Structure formats: C-alpha cells, structure tokens
Protein: Carnitine dehydratase
Amino acid sequence: MKAVPATPGPLAGVRIIDLTWLLVGAGATRMLATLGAEVIKIEPPSPGRLDPMRLRHPYMFNPPRVQPEPEYVDMPPEAQWDRAGNFFNINPGKRGITLNMNHPKGRELFARLVPLGDVVTENFSAHQMEKWGFGYEPLRALKPDILYVQMSGLGYHGCDSSYRSYGPTAQALSGLSDQSGLPEPYPPAGWGFSYLDHTGGYYGAMATLSGLYHRKRTGRGQHIDMAQVGVGLQLTGTALLDFTVNGRSSRRTGNRSPYRLAAPHGVYPCQGEDRWCTLAVFSDAEWQQLCTAMQEPDWTRQDEFVTLDSRLAHQDELDRHLSAWTRQFEARALQDHLRQHGVRAAMVQTVRDKIDDDPQLQQRHYITELPHQLMGQQRVENHPWYFSRTPVHAGSGIQRGAPCLGEDNDYVYGGLLGLSPYEMAQYAAEGVI
Structure:
C-alpha cells in the first residue's frame, strides 16, 4: 500500500453537494473526491429509498470472511446497508448525510446547503430536480455561480428526455450492445457488465472539471447536461464514421479485429476453469515467431497456414489447432512464454489476478487500504493518475472509505449549517434527516 499523501489534492477547497446514486453519477464524484474535492453524498434516510449499491453483494466483514447466502439474509438491515462491498468501492473518500428530499423541510435544508457548495451533481431522470423545485434557475438563485451537473440517461433536452434508463439501457440505445458478440447468425451478446456506467462516470468528472475551469476564468457557473447514451456513441469507435463515409453498417466480428488484419487473433483457452490468453499475429514474420514458441508442430507447415492471406481464409481451423496447444499451459506462463518469443500476448485476468498477482498494478499502488467505521481496513481501487506536485488518493482529504448511512450528519448539519443537537433530533424524529 502506498503511503497516504499529506499534500492537499488538486481539487482541495472544492465542495460538491452530491445527490448521485448507483454507478454513473457516484463514479463521477468518486473521481472528484480522489482529486481532493469534499464530496457530501446525500442519501434518503432509512427506511427511505436507499442507494441500491448499499443492497448489493458481496457484504464485507472485519475480519474478512465468506459466508453462505442465508447468513447474509439474517443480518439486520442496517448492518447490510453499511457493509455492501459495491457501495464501499464506488464511494470512498466521500462524506455521507441523510436527507429526505420528498419532505418540505428536507428541501429547505437542501436550499441551505447549496450556497455552501461549488457543484451540485445528480443522475436522476432528467426532470426530477424540477419536481423538487431545484432546476438550474432555482439553484442559480441560491448561488449565482453554482455548477449544476446532470448525468441522465438520455439528457435533459430532446424528445426522449422524459424516459428513464440505466447503464445497460443506454448501451443498447447507443448501439454498443449490437456491436458485441459473435458474427452472424449469432445474436448480439451485449456487454457482460454495465461498463457505460463507469465510462459515464469519467465523462461526468471531465465535464465537471471543465465547468470548474470555466468558472475560475469567468466567475460564472452553468448547467452541464450529460446523456449516457451520448457517452455510448462516443465509444462506438469507427462504426459511426464508417457508416457516414461508406454507408456500411457495423458488424460483429467476435474477438477478431476487422480493421487490422491478423491471424491468429483471438482469445484462447488455457489450463483450469475459464482461464484464457489473448494473442495476435499481424505478419508472416510474427507467425514464424509463434511457430518457434510452439516448437513448430507439423500442422503449422500446412498450406492453409503459411501466409497471412491463407491464415485469414482458414481462421476457424487455425483457432482449433491453436486452442489445442494453448490448453496445455497455465495462462500467465503462456503469456510470458509467448512474449519471450516476440509474440503479442496477454492473459485474461480475473479479479484475483489483478488484485493479488499483477506486478504492474502492484508497482503503481493501484490497490490501497482505507478505514471503515464497521469493517476496519478494507482494500479498494485507488486511481489511474499520478500527480507529481499534488498527490491524489482514493480516500480524498478525509482518508476514509465509503460513509456509513448518515455518518457525517453531525459534521454537515451541526458544523456547516449550525443546527443545534435539539434541532437535529427534531429533524430526525420527523423523518427529515
């Protein structure tokens, strides 16, 4: 674990009033917290509508242990809410408060919070904030230079703005799901996880940083309207350009690239259950390097495999031969063996591989430990960037993991808003906080 930086991060002094939940919005503010911003995450008080990430397995314990499913179910609900591993990994370095935005007094408290922040973020359906009375103009009335960042599925503007969506929905609407899978006649496979939520988080953080830079230059805030579907379109690669220029629709090619010819080119099985290694051969010279690595079995000298053109014409047969050879090896050993012979290769890593065994990630301190009120020190993904003058860290300025539900109510309501203990107790009794 890398030592925690003592120097304030590049966003130190920026405060974000954060209404985001799930992945895309919470991922954006996670990045901003890592950069040193103070992120105040707002959640409904129990038994309100909890962030679903609080209800997702795996649950974490101190010391760590694996338990059968029934033992999770038997845990008190409040213990589950504060032990969800997914929530912990997407929200480290944030402060957490409870606030009922459906209660008039909750909206009054929110209106008092807004002037203390630099940014308001949310990823509800496009017009939810307006239903609460907090669209951009009302927020601007509370603080003229506020930056309001919306991260909805289809955007605030446009004929589809009223539709609700999640990451997988946006992936399908953007065309990404159709591009993923084996070639026809097989149907599209879609993506195995909601990657567009995570990518959308990076785009949301980038948009927020741009807005903060603009405000620093001009003194003016603004409304930033980001659509997840638009982010997906950015990820379709050359497909949009190909259709625009050539009138050619995208096509599924499985693991083989349609843009640069290579054979063999794919993901190949290794020893063990669900273990794989990728490799790519782009020229006849590289093919000879692969043949040397395989100790030149007889089938490599068949006419079908001698040249790149002939290998491209017989890729299925080539893959069958190659798969029979790769199955003899452990994935990392195969990767290292092929690389030693100049073959482009990389094992397909599992989570355990990345956390426990990847030397590159270990040297870059990509996994760090953060304290949690209930679970002690827990491992969490750190960050993908390194700053030479303003070090950053997943724990932000508070050097802490994800907050327990309402963990920072005293800090925000008592410290920032100046409420007395009696007032806070009254708000709690009324279900406001």
Observations:
- The radius of gyration is 25 Å.
- The domain at 15-234+362-430 is CATH 3.40.50.10540 (Rossmann fold).
- The chain has 20 helices and eleven strands.
- The chain has a mean pLDDT of 92.
